[in-house]
Amino acid sequence: MIFAPQSRKYVHMEDDKNTEKNISNLGEFGLIEHLTKNIQLYNKSTKLGVGDDAAVLKYGSNEILISSDLLTEGIHFDLIYSPLKHLGYKAAVVNFSDIYAMNGIPRQITLALAVSQKIKLSMLEEFYSGINLACEKYGVDFVGGDTSTSLTGMHIAITVVGEAKKGKITFRKGAKTNDLICVSGELGGAYMGLQLLEREKKLFLSGNVEQPILEGHSYILEKQLKPEARKDIVQLFETIDLVPTAMIDISDGLSSDIFHICKQSDSGCKIYAEKIPIHHETKKMADEFNIDPLIAAFNGGEDYELLFTVSPNDFDKISNRPEITIIGYITDKQEGKYMVTKENQLIELQAQGWDTTKA
Amino acid sequence: MIFAPQSRKYVHMEDDKNTEKNISNLGEFGLIEHLTKNIQLYNKSTKLGVGDDAAVLKYGSNEILISSDLLTEGIHFDLIYSPLKHLGYKAAVVNFSDIYAMNGIPRQITLALAVSQKIKLSMLEEFYSGINLACEKYGVDFVGGDTSTSLTGMHIAITVVGEAKKGKITFRKGAKTNDLICVSGELGGAYMGLQLLEREKKLFLSGNVEQPILEGHSYILEKQLKPEARKDIVQLFETIDLVPTAMIDISDGLSSDIFHICKQSDSGCKIYAEKIPIHHETKKMADEFNIDPLIAAFNGGEDYELLFTVSPNDFDKISNRPEITIIGYITDKQEGKYMVTKENQLIELQAQGWDTTKA
Fold first, then answer.
1. Segment A336-354, tens digit of pLDDT
2. Which residues of A touch B212 (CB under 8 A)?
3. What is the pTM of this model?
């Protein structure tokens, strides 16, 4: 290919005020779909490309999962209230979560990191120690790194490689009508933790308090600042010999994430509001903020719990597990996607989740 | 682990003017070494972690290579003179280069991308089309993506997965005394391309020219803006049944990169100045800037040529290849690392390459 410098024009970003199609209008999911629609695959080792929590590769007889995330300062985290060690821990764990969401086991991660001048060596050491702690706890190997400077902000890109037994990988697309919709743990906590941190930050910066009041909120703060991935649930599936029909981790909120499953499984859903598991601290904080805790669960995101569907035949395997809650069931696509209130009203679900217009 | 919010302190970055150990003093390589020294490995599928161009994993009977890079605006590229399509192409290719540098074949990439509001959809489309073009040309599958907003700047993290035949992986550490030091292609071009672009940018921004004068410099501009990785050289090794004893791709400049080989191989080197292959356009531009073209080759970086060592017994296999130049040989460690001038003077090499103090 001939490079033709004479045909290039210098681009002056500030002057680029045209009215072309806007990224914000597409939202994150529309944007990725739009940008990746022309991708071709060339290698037989690629079993599944873009579109699930992780891509699936096949090397020898093993199925390998791979997923990448980028966390960027000011969008995904705020260094004012994120201790660097927690940030490293969270950055690793949310990547592990993508592999568990495929019913796999994370094995290796690589890190590409860019930091600005304000980050001191001791802060980087804290960050790395958080990653190492997560790796130790989850048995994952930290195998590669690229560290450089950035003009502004801290940018953390982690790629995770995982492994899954043949036939055990769980995609977003396998849910069938009448399958039970289940979640691990409790929802909405990470969102309420964020609201608390944002409120205390404002007070702190305004000079009205010397130290933020965070006592008594350790559950929601930990869900936000130092979440865990549900390795235990994937191990439980192995123990009780259960393969979910579809699975995703809740990173964008229950609403967005059930939308992903329904879209890829070509189905609808009914979710019972009363069944949504919500921690008492989450409820209490939602009360303080005068918001419905269901909003935190449906729209909040970052819970990193597993949302999965199981065949009704497997009901007995999960019905008495305290760590799993059945919250609804899969319907035919034409029945739509609804929340059922305790008064038995049907409220249509909206995809929420991350949207560039709000960022 | 109990989360203890009461023990945390709000960190106010601007106030953090202490005199602790500075990142700049360590440099990139020292920094990565410092930060990764506590890493433990837990999985038998991890054969090699941090420290080479790629990590080596073993799944089934195959050896898999994995490497990640982050490119950040203002440090690694300037959108004023980097067309987005070229940038996508380069971001992919420099990652492929890390796999070729291990004597492997890149198979899959994932992309994590953060862009600020100034990036329009059409620019993102251009960027993706550049990645797709690189993938098509090199036969690599684009299997995963994460796209989000950033407050400022564009940040590109790519992870590449590659494959290598058992026993064919080439590390930095295998060079032996008397091995021949070889490079592919020609050196210093990317650096002189960058000097030209920076000069023209200054003139353009000062309003002294309407369009930059880039005609007649397509070789050095292409080396900088749209480099290629040496897939052909790795294929040649296969054809002529040659396994280099050590290999690295030249991303930081000949000097830095031979330092990596010497350090990990516990050896020294002699490199003959007269043998360094330099393109006539590189020489001409170095002349214009009144700098020694050897500086561009030794300190410039970003050439993405392969630097490798071969056993003297393999001399015949490479001696008549126009795409390969023998530039020196490996010595015992205590003999040091030297460039030999045409007047037969010895000049001690310095590790150069990227350094945070210059960024």
1. 999 999 999 999 998 763 3
2. 10
3. 0.88
